[in-house]
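chain below, 130 aa
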Amino acid sequence: MKRLIRSSQKIRKKTIKASSTNGYTDYHTYNRGGTKFSIHSKQLDDPYKFECAIEEIHPYDDADYYWVKKGSSLKADLIKNGRKVGDIFLDPYDDELYETPEEYVDDMIDYMCVELKNLNKEIKPRMMYD
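prediction:
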């Protein structure tokens, strides 16, 4: 007879998927204050339709860090353990404050990276060795 091992945690039906499955067209990395971020995005030239998924890059680290998924125009979902745990609210686009839509998008990416860095600094690394 086979023994089944089950988690003591309740399994939730909805988990938020990884960024690679959401049809993002662009990928780049971004450095902010010594921390490197991975950014999957699309429609970088349209501040109203811009979408992205941002996470810190931690090689060989298996700790569960916060990451951000922005789908709507003025809010980004804060995600940890595959579940939404909060929101990051963004400033609306104002063409009088920014010379180009891309400048606004860059500013919002920077803001989300700063928020992630502040949240993730309390998480202890969990290094994986072979």
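The radius of gyration is 17 Å. Confidence is low (pLDDT under 50) at residues 1-15.
thats it, cya
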